[in-house]
Fold this sequence. Notes:
The complex is a heterotrimer of chains A (601), B (289) and C (345). With 601 residues, chain A is α/β, with parallel strands linked by helices. In chain A, helix 15 crosses helix 16 (496-509). Classes of the chains: A alpha/beta (601), B mainly alpha (289), C mainly alpha (345).
Amino acid sequence: MSAPAQEPTTTRTTHGIAIEDLRIGLTSRPGVDVVDDIDLVLRPGEVVGLVGESGSGKTTVGTALLGYTRSGAAIERGRILYEDKDVLGLPWQQVRQLRGEEIAYVPQDPAAALNPSIRIGRQIVELMELRGIGTAESRLQGAREGLAEVGLPNDDEFLRRYSHQLSGGQVQRVALAMAFLPKPKVLVLDEPTTGLDVTTQGMVLKTMGELCRTHGVAALYVTHDLAVIANIADRVAVMYAGQVAELADRDTLFRHPSHPYTRALLDSIPHLSQARALRGIPGRTPAPGARPDGCRFNDRCNYAVDECRQGVPELREVGPGHEVRCIRVGEIGSWDISRGTVPDTDPNKPRDIILSIEGLGVFYGHKQVVFDVSFDLGKSEVVALVGESGSGKTTISRAVGGLHKEWTGTIAFEGNQLGHGSRKRSVSDRKRIQYIFQNPYLSLNPRLTIEQIVKRPMELFGVASGRKATERVVELLDQVALGPAVLKYQASRLSGGERQRVAIARALAAEPDVLVCDEITSALDVSVQGSIVELLESLRLSRGISMLFVTHNLALVRSIAARVQILNAGRVVESGSVVEVMDSPKEDYTRRLLANSPAID
Amino acid sequence: MSTTADAVSVAAAAPRTPSTFQKALKQKRFVVGGVITVLVALFAVFGRFVAPHGQNEVVGTPYSSQGALGTDYLGQDVLSRLMYGGTEILVIALLATVLSTVVGTLIGVVAAYGGGWWDEVIMRLNDVMLAFPQILLSLVVLTAVGQPRAWMLVVLVGLSNAPRTARIARGVALGLVSRDFVHAAEALGEKRSRVIVAEVLPNMNAPLLAEAGLRLTFSIALVAALGFLGFSTDPSAANWGQMIQENRLGLSTQTWSVLAPVLIIGLFTIGTNLTADGIAQVTQRGGDD
Amino acid sequence: MAADTSTLPDALGEVAPPKGRHGAAAWASWVLRRLGLAVLTLWLVSILVFVATTALGDPVRAILGKDYNSDKARVAQLTAQLNLDQSLVTRYFHWLGHLLTGDLGTSIASGGPVSQLITDNVVNTLVLVVISAVVMIPVAFGIAMISTNYRRRRPDTAIQTVLLMLAALPEFVIGILLVAIFSTTVFHWLPAVTIVSPGVHPWNAPKTMIMPVATLVLAVAPYVSRIVRATLLEVLDSDYVELARLKGIPERVVMRKHALLNAIVPGIQVIALQLAWLAGGVVLVEKVFNYPGVGNQLVDSVNNHDVPMVQALSMIIAGVYVVVNLVADLLSILLTPRARTAISA
């Protein structure tokens, strides 16, 4: 956790920027808003975190600061005050003038941010060149300084590169340098570290924080990751369904969250230091136009009463700088960050090994990517494979799951050697080891109904067929908290979390003993991740299923796994019980990984 | 974990997604094109039953103004010949389209799914066929043949279209075979043929349909062109393409003898192309234009 | 009606760039590999042409028609001329050998050497194709950019619908319609048919070139225009263009520098495909206007069952097709930085 920012001495924004009563609606559906009633002040040198899950409208608010909305949306009401001017009221030429020079933007997807056909040296200075700022030499000098500031090389060779010749982290840092070059006063960052490795993420965040403080920039950091916010933001605004649910400075938010949504969100986030029983939030985030009457969270809220449906609550101040949009603040009791803590798995518990991997080497053609990996998995146990991208964790899981054929070594299931690839395995082996994919939007056949998808493994493995099978499908869907109504749906009608549950139901349909879960929550919102983890835990206890859980999120490992293998560049760096590895890591790499993982506690 | 809350919320989920056909009906092009195509097709098939005269019946002097559209180079009634002249074109083009779609799709999907060596070899051979401008292949084969038979034309037109369909099918299939749900089926140990039929092909419906529509357009044009060049199954029978060439010399005296078949061929291809584009719009993100 | 350009080959996907070498050597080996593939394709095409013309049906019977049964002497003469007494394979290599040394054989219909008979026509067709291409490119790009300017509004939709309809029409339909409008029925400005004395090139009487060129342009431009527009739209919606706008770059510069640059490569591929198509599509257009080119000659030769002529002309047309595709591949790789660096890496 880093030090808090300077206390602001004025309430008036002489620099900085303020959003007042902002409402952005859909052009195709009048009366429907994307975001509503947004008030936010950003002061120079301060980082404000704008947190929300998908559908919260946070990105829309972010780009509105530049006077920009995506096509299909329009600003209906509100002001954005910058240096005593209302950005939204300015003629567009002046707005364009502001952009880049005074109000800058760092986008989410590094690869898409840079033009693939223009060298990065040119792109960095492009804006200054167009505005006629400085001379060619001074611009180039500024570019070099900017690159040095973000920790990148600044020699000619680097400037001549194209964007595809840089790594994701490098591209993102170039984007940062590009944004900072004209020395803007306001900076909007849109989840700029999503998809980056934890180590790279740490570096980018640190750089960004330093740049903001050094240059006195007012920054808005838009993200879904509360853990990141806990480390870099001075103040936090939590958004839900287009409105600000809670606004507070960082310490207050994490110690005394007052809105039920904020609390539920914090309940679903795993901690590095302690295992937790993660929970999700029932239901799904409503889309614009489908939001409930009254408080937008009331249909999913544990504390909702009838009055909550009567009208939209106002954002009320409940403490210095702390505002909450809930009529039941004060009635719903206190909250503690260590709520939901459960004991870590006992490292000395006896283990009944069912899957054993020895000397595993995995190849892509001639290239070896995994070297001499050995570990085992016990009954009713979760073993986590952790590493950054390129560490080989997914490759190992695919080899175990039968999706990848080119490997050497031994994978033994209950003593029997498994074949290379699913087609070389016996029906029984295929049945008892099931694989769940990362992206729920791609792992279900869009043309089939849910019933067909979940039924198929049953038919294939002779578990059941016909009407009996359909009955079982309904049972399974119930276990993954989906009602029988979805039987005839196609996958496109379900949300990401719901689709992943279907994928889990499909895996369970084969009545397996081992589930190989390949980053199955990485593509999901954090509260949805919480509910999936809750589900997996209940399955483990009720059915005794073992799981091989691949992830890059160390905090998640703490809450879900008993044992962990830390992987780097295809080798096991450290392995052992979760408690031991995470509390007393022996290897430098593990320590570095733990240090770079943003922690909430 | 409460199940009822989820069930309720899920029941309120997104409305049922319409089928490809329903989505296509929303596109103006599809509707307009479809209507035109159907009308011309009906005319081509059933016209002969309501024609005022026989297709070889001489009703007057050559290039006269007798009859609704006048007479042709032999004095036959242009309107009647117009009503007879589309059947062969339509039937051959339709059969050729079916042939090229089936063959092309199979080639493309097998190449994409098989990957590696299979893909290389199949697509190289495909490229050889693609190196032929469509009409060239037909002309080359027709050199040694006297009067082509109908099945020959079907095979020629179909085979010259198949490589293009194969290219498209392979492109679409490539995008599908690397998707996780196909891997999921393979992990379950599904037979390869079943994976192709049950997982890959059903997801290719819309692009394949659009491509088939395009193939139909080209097939009609090719068969009409071959007729124009004199390669039809029966030189005396009415054939829209052939009629254009037959009556060339009468372009100034009895324009309709040339213009009528020209216009109806044009109308037909416009209809099929608009329909095909309407379907293609459905598969594009949010519809292009 | 133009060839379909829905089949844009992915130049990089077609041939994986070589690994493990640097700079010029890598380039050379990649170019050689592409060339090799083109040669292989042409060779397979030659087999196809040869087999198709001589092995399907009986060419002698086709040539003589009814006289086959009566004129035995002619049958024998033709059989000897076409070497039909030898095996297919021997005949093929004979023919291929001659082809590679420049001997294109003797025409059956006229008795003269094929190479002499086709030279003039090859030149005429090349001129026609080149002029058409030169006219077509700015027209297609211009319409695409105008349409993009009005994107998704009425003018755009109207233009696209018109282009779709034009694209649907077979080229001979377009040709005849032009003739009907401008030569015979409505206006009498232009000659309906190209009548030139042998030895005189059509471009010496420019009026005769106008309609054939116009037909080809009308047949090809719609497709190119639609694809260029589609690419432009895709680029304009891309993330990096959005970022450029958010950086405050003026729209003009966004369009020119960021968008157009990335839209050119697919544009070139399309143009090349269309040029290659023109090699075949020119057949019908030349027939409509009786233009003295290879297309017209090819049709006559097919009608006369003049096997050597057909073989020679087909190889030339197919050859042009393959060469133009190869050049397009090279150009698109050269213009895509990602591909360029992939190759020299």
